[in-house]
Structure formats: structure tokens, C-alpha cells
């Protein structure tokens, strides 16, 4: 074998080895630990299923209040990514060096709804709040849950905070607020539209979709946490959230893109 032929053979072998490493690396399945806002539980189950089918990666999900997740992340919780119920906490994590700078983006805009499990109990403009006829009003804790804060802003617009505060039943997050209403422990409550919508309509009971002008826009941001840097599945999941098919899926749960 001549020197030139030998060099060509070595170059070819190196190219084949590099290609094999590239293919092997891209095919490697990984797992992502993601903290997900409670209101996004149902959509995230569908998103994760599609993501796992498409990539082979595993999605390990924890659902809860965004404020509680913030405290956990500051205390070293090993989440790779956060899907928050607001845009404030992800921005704060970036500023504090706990999230990858520039990785934050809005994955959904949420809608607040006043809902009762009883058909005909909630009218189409929220007048039931003024009329009374109920003893308990459920909402997420406004100090740690964005949907609870939006509910308080709505009640402030109505001028009803003082009158209704004795009737408040506070949940740690909007999922717990929904549970209070669905089980009858509260006659009505402020929950996420995604929790009561199915196939493009309110699935049961009665509801008033609160106009977005009644409260600050509920922008829900996702961010890559420092523990997720270099995690293949974490990066892939955040890219998957922005794919057109995923955006359409999320809209089907009552969110705006």
C-alpha cells in the first residue's frame, strides 16, 4: 500500500468513526427532570407523551406551585428545567444565576376562569360574585401562585376583596383550588381554563372566562436550569415545546400561544 493510499484510508476511518460517534450521541436516550406549574398538568402529560415517542427521552415531571418550585430550586432541587405559571420566577432565576441566561421563553399564555361544578350556578359575566348565594370561594394562594394573584386582581377590579375575603378557601396552587370546587368543598372558585376545558368547550358545570383585561397577562415561561446544562433531554424538551405541533396541542387546552 502506497503512502498516499494509506493516508486516504486513515482519513476515511477517522470520518467513519466521527460519524458513528455523532449518530450514537444523537441516538442516546436521556432523562429530563422538569418542574411544571400545576395548571399545566394535563397539557404536559400530552406534550411529554409526544416528546418521548419522538425522541426516546424520558420525562420525569413534578407538578406544583411556581413559588414553591422557586424555593426548592434555590435550595438545590435537581430539576433540569422549569415550566412556570408566570414569567417573573424564570426571569428571577436567570438574574440569580440559577438558570441559563437567554434560555427563557413563553410557552403559553393562560386564561383564568370562575368555575362551579354546578350547572347554571356561574353566569356569563361573573355577577354571581356580587349576588352571593355561596359560602366558599376557592382560589390559589395569591402570594405564591400566579393564577391566585390574577384572581385577586379580578376581585379588586370588582371592589369585592373585603366583602369576599371571609369566604376564601386558599389552595397551595391552582390544582388544589380546582380540587376544592370539584369535590364540592367550595361552591365556586377561580381556576385555570385548561382544567375545565375539553375538546374546545367547558366540560362540566358552569363558568365565566375572565376577560384578560381584568388582570395582568398570565405569561407562562419555560427556562433551562443550571442543573440541566449539557443534559440532552432537557434541551430537546425545550425545543419540542416550541414546535408548531406542540403549540397547536397546547392551544387545544385553552391556552393562547
3D structure, described in words:
This protein has two domains: 11-16 and 23-109 and 222-251, D-Maltodextrin-Binding Protein, domain 2 (3-Layer(aba) Sandwich); 112-209, D-Maltodextrin-Binding Protein, domain 2, CATH 3.40.190.10. Helices cover 42% and strands 22% of the residues. The protein contains eleven helices and twelve strands. The protein has helices spanning 3-27, 41-55, 66-74, 88-95, 128-131, 146-158, 161-164, 174-182, 193-196, 232-241, 244-251, and strands at residues 31-37, 58-64, 81-83, 105-110, 112-116, 137-140, 168-171, 188-192, 197-198, 201-202, 206-209, 218-224. The chain has a five-stranded mixed β-sheet, sandwiched between helices. A five-stranded mixed β-sheet has the order 7-6-8-5-11, sandwiched between helices. β1 (31-37), α2 and β2 (58-64) form a beta-alpha-beta unit.
Which key terms come to mind for this protein?
single chain, 257 residues, alpha/beta, D-Maltodextrin-Binding Protein, domain 2, 2 domains, 5-stranded mixed beta sheet, 11 helices
